[in-house]
Structures are given as structure tokens and as C-alpha cells.
Amino acid sequence: MRKKGQIAIFIILGIVLIIGIGFFIYIMGQQSKLGEAKTLVTEEVPVQLEPIKLYVQNCLKTTAAEAVRLLGAQGGYIFPKNPYLLTNYSSIAYGYDRGKNTLPTESTMENELASYVVFGLPLCTANFIEFSSMDLRTEAVRAGVDITEGKVVFTIDYPITLVTKTGEPKISKFAYELPVRLDHVVSISNSVINGLISDPDNIDLTNLSAYDVAIDMTPYGDDTILFSLSDDVIKIQDEPYMFTFAGNITKNKAPILDVKNEYNLQDKFEFQLQLGITDDDTEHEFFADTVLFDISDTGLIKFTPEITGSFTVRIRVTDPHGLYDEKYVRFIVDK
Hints:
By secondary structure, this protein is α+β, with helices and mostly antiparallel strands. It has helices at 2-19, 21-31, 50-73, 106-125, 182-198, 205-209, and strands at 84-86, 91-97, 100-101, 136-138, 142-148, 151-162, 170-179, 214-219, 224-236, 239-248, 256-258, 262-266, 271-274, 276-278, 285-288, 300-303, 309-318, 324-334. It has two domains: 2-248, no CATH class; 256-334, Sandwich (Immunoglobulin-like), CATH 2.60.40. It is built from six helices and 18 strands. Strands 1, 2, 3, 8, 9 and 10 form a six-stranded mixed sheet that branches. β8 (214-219) and β9 (224-236) form a beta hairpin. α1 packs across α3. The longest helix has 24 residues, at 50-73. The protein is elongated. The termini are far apart.
């Protein structure tokens, strides 16, 4: 029950973040200016602002832990991208989708974590209500995140100025290293996914047990498996770090090309034909071995014949997984 309660908290936080998405988009532009976090920055802290420095640092520590936990609960995303699995407790991204590795890259995860901190840190500081006796002026938060070996490094630029009669002391630099093996569990997740790609019909349980993290598999419906990695080597607040992603194990079927065997055209008159496709996938590549026409990305053939005759053309449609269907079609052009 404790874990379910924690996950529910993550979902509430996620909803709060989504409500602020408009503000977040603006902040993203600001955040990108800072770049990746490579080293912890330091600055001289005026005596008057030492309590503020400590207060923000504690908020950063809390917010960073929340961000990394939520990222792990949702398959590497703060805001899961389609397709994702909607459960009673969270939205979990697909790391494996019918033969493809769709797990987000570490760079994407770094951006997701930075985005959470950019929006979540001011929520934690709550406009510094606890320091209402001080005239504090703040500017937008910018964040950089670096997922490195055994830790996640957060480097923050959060300008805070104290307005007084004698001057305006200022602080802006904050940093925190969260000890967590996010890089390690992501690497293992990619290994598990690549194993599925190599042999989608068999999951090697012996191989899964060889890793130094616990890996649980939970069926979810007829065509989905939840993979949960639990790392208790480096814990967050005495809890093992959990990283969960979904796997779509539906066997992919080749697309079916719906086109007639023969079409009659008239010379010098425009001809249009929308190819019909029956397939679960929505994106396809089209090919025709002819110089008469090209096929658009949507499967539209549109051209004006300039020569009469009978032309047999091989038309192929291919899905994102490499499966295809092709047919030979005769185009008869009359005067």
C-alpha cells in the first residue's frame, strides 16, 4: 500500500505540472540557454541571504528526488509521449513497441528532469512566504541536468535579490547531486529491450536474473508487459529506485495494399489515385518502380501522363517495422 500511495502522489504532481504547461513552455526556452550540467557551481553568499540559500537548497533536494522518482515511474518521461500505457496509478511510456526500441534517450530524460525542476522548484519555495519580512525579488529558474555514473547532477540558475535600504545582495547558483543509478537501470532496460528485439517470442528469464537489479514482469492485458526494475544498491530516502516501462508485444502484421490491377488514363489529363492501406500502423513508406509518377507520404498518386501506352508498375507499401505488401498495377494511357 505504501508504494501505491507514493505512486498516487507522483500522479498528483504530474497533474499539477500539466496544468502549468503553458507557463512551462515559456520556461523551457529559458532553461535551454543554460545547457547541460557538468560541474557544480559555487558563489559567495551574502550573510543576509544564507537562510534563503539553505531553504532553496533543501527545496532543490526534494524537487530533484521527486523528479527522478516520477521519471522512473513513467518509463523515462515526466510528460509521457504517445503511445503510452494508462494505468490506475500512472502513465507509463512504451520502451518496447512491436520490435522497436522506443525508450527515451538519456538526453531526453535530462531535459525532462530539468523541465520538472524549472516548474517544481518555485512551487516548493512558495514565493518565500516563510520569509515575508524580507523584500525578495526572484527571476525565472533555469536548469541543467547531467545523468552520470551513479548520480544525477542538477545545476540551477535561480536569481534571488534582497532589496534593502543599504543595497541589493543577490544569489543565483544552486546545485545538487542525487545519488541514484539512473544511468545503470537505463542501460539494463536497453539491454532487455534489445533482447526482445532479437527474439520477440522468448524472454530469457535466466538472463534477466543475471543483472544486479531485480526485474519483475507483469502482464497487462493481452499484448502488454510491464517491466519494473528495482535497484536497492543506491536508494532514495531508504526506498529502492524503481524504473518501469511498458512493452507492446503484439505481433506486427504486414500492411495490406488496396489497389486495383488496372487503371485507364487519358493522355494529357491529370490522374489521381489514393492508395488504400489496411494496417494498425499509421506511418508508411511508398515506392513505385516507374518514372511516370511519385507517391506522396500519404499514398497519393497524382500526375498527368505525357505519353500513351501500357505500363506495368510495381507498387510497394512498407510499415515502420520493415514488413510490406506490393502489387503490380497496369496503367493504360489512351489518347
